Structure to design on (246 residues):
């Protein structure tokens, strides 16, 4: 696989002028096409990204990380790329880890490869570590397989697998939605250990609003899971029709 030509990087950004340039320069070592989705920034993020060599897609106002990712993924698919590599624009993800994703996809055949920060989470803020583990346990139960890190935004995804999925979230719950949708569709999902660089800047995740959005999304998923269980129970309890031969 010629990843440099078949994969495009998608970087959703909101006010990341201080870090986006160095992220782009790092990613440039592995892929040739980099799409920065400026989700209504007010600090010159777009200008810095363009000077660093990225193509910038703009939202006039902030629509949320999920919406920004969808804009970037759609653009990459329209440009005939087979894969999208997504990572944050704040410098939290190390571009040097990108080959790990390519290698795992090639050797496992996975359609979605997700970074796993939990193999060494000592430097992760304690509340984020606690919440991530709680959410990952719930998604593991729903998916029927181990999900060590459900919230990591550092991912490699096959665009032809993503395109037909019914996805609706527009904010940070997008990571959970995409993960569960791939597993439910029967597409292989793999995880690869990565390093994470935590800085002093404040997280873009709103502790109340985004948590409530995730719980609203999760409530809908639980209803879906219960409906499927009811359907399976009905199928088992239905009397079998006798077959008469004439």
């Amino acid at each position: 696989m010629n990843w440099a030509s078949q994969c495009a990087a998608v970087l959703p950004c909101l006010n990341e002028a201080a870090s986006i340039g160095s992220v782009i320069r790092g990613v440039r070592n592995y892929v040739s096409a980099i799409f920065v989705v400026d989700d209504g920034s007010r600090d010159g993020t777009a200008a810095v990204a363009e000077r660093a060599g990225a193509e910038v897609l703009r939202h006039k106002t902030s629509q949320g990380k999920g919406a920004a990712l969808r804009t970037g993924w759609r653009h990459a698919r329209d440009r005939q790329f087979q894969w999208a590599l997504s990572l944050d624009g704040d410098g939290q993800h190390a571009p040097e880890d990108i080959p790990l994703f390519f290698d795992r996809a090639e050797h496992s055949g996975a359609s979605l490869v997700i970074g796993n920060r939990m193999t060494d989470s000592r430097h992760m803020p304690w509340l984020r570590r606690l919440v991530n583990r709680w959410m990952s346990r719930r998604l593991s139960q729903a998916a029927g397989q181990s999900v060590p890190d459900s919230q990591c935004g550092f991912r490699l995804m096959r665009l032809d697998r993503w395109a037909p999925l019914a996805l609706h979230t527009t904010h940070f719950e997008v990571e959970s939605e995409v993960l569960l949708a791939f597993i439910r569709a029967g597409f292989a999902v793999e995880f690869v250990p990565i390093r994470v660089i935590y800085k002093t800047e404040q997280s873009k995740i709103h502790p109340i609003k985004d948590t409530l959005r995730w719980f609203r999304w999760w409530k809908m998923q639980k209803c879906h899971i219960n409906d499927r269980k009811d359907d399976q129970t009905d199928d088992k309890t239905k009397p079998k029709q006798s077959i008469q031969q004439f």
